[in-house]
């Protein structure tokens, strides 16, 4: 049971030797005081397999190689809430005693509603049911509050929801599990904004996904395979991107998650999350989004032609992705991605001005979270 007995004192001694950083730098809370590797680590959301947090993950958090954690169903035990509560407490302790002391970890999951819920608790209604409510705004606000309550019961602070996709065909990829509020972009906009505001009023961050929209993906899933969404730019903007206006300007959503689909009307070569055009021109310049971007799972099948997870992460960071989701439930994946990003920064492969600006956005959002 070595994995459970986490000796923080011994770990800190060995870390001090490795980094030889003055204690004041470690706890000063300014990004400049961190090493490149720790700064790169702030950009990575790690994951782990099973119900016990592996020593490797606690160690990575202490060393500042994980800026956050994404939790999946396999990380909890439905009949024993103490499993996840203990995991969160261990991770927070590892963070508080490590080189990222003073910075909150992003603790995230996918709690959309209906069948797409990792945690016990609400929202029991799926997005489609919310979209069909008599008062969509009121139903979506309650749904956001229920999702936030489910996260907060375990000390989590970031929900990778709501889905802003405007589905096209009954039973398609988004509609199959009722993940899309409506076929009507205006209803999706109202619902998404209310869900985001509802979550914020309950102290949980939202991530609007998956920009610029998966509503026209048909039956294809980017988790499994490359997906091309060939809708004309005018349609993409008037239907799929419409809810982002409400999410960004009305609800001031904290994070946006781009999709891994390819949108030839915007960029014929790179999927949205790897596309400078889509992140910089469409999301940031056109929609005025100044918050934090978070990638979808870096191991997704849609990216199979873009190299290793580490190479994909470099491309994503270069395109403007602030946080990288290392969601393979492999304890080595996140730290390995962090090392790759640090290497790309040191070698000058990544634009340092943009990297620094990305860290500032992340730090600013992190500073709003309780420790
Ligand atoms: C979940 O917890 C219950 C109660 O503590 C335990 O009996 C069960 O073995 C656990 N399940 C798994 C998969 O570990
Ligand atoms: C719908 O709910 C919102 C938020 O609770 C409320 O402000 C609004 O008055 C309601 N609209 C109707 C038509 O009842
Ligand atoms: C879409 O929803 C809006 C707002 O509820 C409504 O006014 C409009 O008529 C709907 N459009 C269609 C095509 O149903
Ligand atoms: C886990 O991730 C590491 C680092 O990316 C990789 O080398 C290793 O092959 C992965 N393990 C599995 C079982 O996929
Ligand atoms: C780095 O990014 C900044 C901001 O986008 C840009 O002004 C600058 O030209 C870039 N530098 C290089 C070497 O590409």
Tell me the strand order in the biggest sheet.
1-2-3-6-7-8-9-10
Order of helices and strands: HHHEHEHEEEHHEHEHHEHEHEHH
Shape: globular
> Main beta sheet, described?
8 strands, parallel, barrel
Radius of gyration: 20 Å
Class per helix and strand makeup: alpha/beta
Total number of beta strands: 10
Low-confidence parts: 1-29
The helix content is 40-55%
Strand content: 5-15%
Mean pLDDT: 92
Secondary structure tally, helices: 14
Termini distance?
A: 28 Å
List ligands, each type once.
Answer: 2-acetamido-2-deoxy-beta-D-glucopyranose
Structural overview:
- The chain has 371 residues and is an alpha/beta fold.
- Helices cover 41% and strands 10% of the residues.
- It has 14 helices and 10 strands.
- It has helices spanning 8-19, 23-27, 36-41, 55-62, 82-96, 127-131, 136-152, 185-201, 233-240, 242-250, 276-286, 309-319, 333-346, 352-366; strands at residues 44-46, 68-70, 106-109, 111-113, 116-117, 158-159, 205-211, 255-258, 292-297, 323-325.
- Strands 1-2-3-6-7-8-9-10 form an 8-stranded parallel β-barrel, surrounded by 5 helices.
- Helix 11 (276-286) links the parallel strand 8 and strand 9.
- Helix 12 (309-319) crosses helix 13.
- The longest helix is centred in the middle third of the chain and has 17 residues, at 136-152.
- It is globular, with a radius of gyration of 20 Å.
- The structure holds 2-acetamido-2-deoxy-beta-D-glucopyranose (5 copies).
- One 2-acetamido-2-deoxy-beta-D-glucopyranose binds next to helix 13.
- One 2-acetamido-2-deoxy-beta-D-glucopyranose binds at residues 135, 137-138.
